[in-house]
Amino acid sequence: MEGDAQRSRDLLVAHPFSEQIERLPFPWGERALELLVQRHEALWTTFGEDSHGDPKQRVWAAAPVRIQHFDPESWATADDFFLHLDKTPFRISEEWPLRVGRAGDRLNLVIAHIAIDAWGARVLGREFDSALTAFALGAEPELLPAGAQPLDQALWERSPAGRRNDDSACAYWRTELESRPAEYFPAARRPETVRYHEASLTSPAADLALRLTAATLAVPMSAVALAVGALVLAHMTGRDAVPFHMTWAARQRADAKEIVGSLFRDIVFTLDASGAPALSDLAVQAQRHVLRSGMRGQFDLLRFHETKAAASRSRGLLLRPGVSFNFRPFEDTDDSPGVPPADESSWAELRIRSTWAMVPATREHWNAHDLHIRVSPAVDGLRLVAVSHEEALDEEALRRFLYGMEAVLVRAAATGDTTTDLDHVLGCVADRPDTAYTQVGASWLDLRETERLLRLHPAVHDVELSLEDSTLRARVTTQDDDLTPAALRQTLLAGIDACHMAACPALFEIRRMGDGGGRAVTDEVVPRIVTGPGTERNHSGPADEAERVLHRAVMAANGLASVSMTDNYTEASGRWSRIPNVCDLVARAGYSGLSLADFEGPRCLADVAAGMQRADDSAGPTK
């Protein structure tokens, strides 16, 4: 589900799943469709909100499916008609999430993603095939009784057992997010728009190599693909901790396995490719990470975002998703390892059959991912797809990356050697980061950006940053007796967003000029050195009209008696389910300029308010 938080939630739209069925016998297809709709409540559920503004599912009474028929007077071709059905956004608060179109013997099903995920789509597809076959033979389909429905899953999530599961999952994710690299591709200052490139390599050799290697190592193909991607990326960038972001089915509970609904979650984990590990070792590490994360993969999504925002505030960093990875075999493939070629020259001949494609670059705003990798075994070969913006990997780097994955897979399968010399196999040495980037924890960050942001404080005369015993320290000189570490940290966090990444020092040391060597701050309220997340939280009320508007909106939307403007939204006990309500209240008060990104980072509410604009004021932010 997507939508700008500052718009009315009636305008929320959903990305669709689209399935086209060719040469469909009439009327068996429509009978099969009617049967499935009767079985699965998700297909006649709307997603709105209750009187408190919280998300709410509403299951309507089942009714006949409305089928839209192709009209040659309105559409040039049936393909244009189907494209219209596929691309038109769903109004999920009032419209059923199922849209059906028919043109002759072609039936097109479009289902909003909020109502179905890939797992649920496969369940629906199996049942449709069974029903269609039975009707064609003049029999009634023998389907298992319909089991749990999405509302049953929602009720379990809100039960005591579900709450305990959620608490455990969020505690796990908080620990993971505290140590995860903030981002993988360093980019201290980013342009507002950037060109994205999409490259694809279809390789029969890589497909066979992946199957053989997975069978040899006794791990899933997805784990081998993850390990290969991490090895090649770490070699190309010189950054060994590779943070991944992966979609998980979240079907651990037995009665959830046959639910046609949208239960998937995104899980995050980091692979350690330091010391040039063998592919076999990294594949096992990848599988363990996926399983450990997947065990905590059934969680309240809004609570996860609150946990992420809290970790972001604690670390003083905006946590980006990392490298997106998706492994999805096509339906017409199997897991059999296949027969290996006789020798390396036969592997080389097989590699010649690989096909390469590059989609023309598009210029667009930053999306959630710097790099997206999709690996799909298919009948014509392993489809390796990578989408990246030019600030991370340009066209040539994408080519090297995908051909590098193919080379590592083929080498491991052809020789049985999983301790591959990447310099030899890839034909290149690592592109080490710019010397301005310093490794702070697991993250590579440009300390010049940290210095620039700290110098924005009017009382700062000079800044010196140093990394001592893995701790980033900031030594600041000033002539202002009132300057505190808390004020410096606040200035720094105010400048961090999706286009400006900086490291927040764990220790600040303030020295005043002109007093014989720099007398440090020593009063009891503000110590001389303040340690990272231990910064004292001093309650602060709103200071101007914009802050008062946001202050009232956060309290009213969340039912809070008081809110400190020096806290970020999560620290102030703000709930993510109420962010649209906050934005609505701010808009009613005559202000605009808020989006979801304003609430997920480390900035405090006072700095969020500074970015708000009067609806009738085009001059810019309020501060």
List the helices and strands and how they pair.
Layout: E1 16-21, H1 28-39, E2 45-49, E3 55-59, E4 67-69, H2 78-87, E5 98-103, E6 106-112, H3 118-136, H4 150-157, H5 160-179, E7 193-203, H6 204-217, H7 221-237, E8 241-248, E9 265-272, H8 279-295, H9 301-315, E10 323-327, H10 344-352, E11 355-365, E12 371-378, E13 381-389, H11 395-415, H12 422-426, E14 437-440, E15 443-446, H13 447-454, E16 460-468, E17 471-478, H14 485-494, E18 507-512, E19 529-531, H15 545-558, H16 579-588, E20 591-592, H17 597-600, H18 605-610, E21 613-614
Parallel strand pairs: 4-5, 8-10, 10-12, 17-18
Antiparallel strand pairs: 1-6, 2-3, 5-6, 7-11, 7-13, 8-9, 12-13, 14-15, 16-17, 18-19, 20-21
Distinct helical segment count = 18
Instruction: Please tally the β strands and state the result.
Output: 21
Question: Into how many domains do the coordinates divide?
Answer: 4
Structural class: alpha+beta
Shape assignment: globular
Mean pLDDT: 81
What amount of the residues lies in strands?
15-25%
Query: Can you identify the CATH superfamily of the largest domain?
Result: Nonribosomal peptide synthetase, condensation domain
CATH architecture of the largest domain: 2-Layer Sandwich
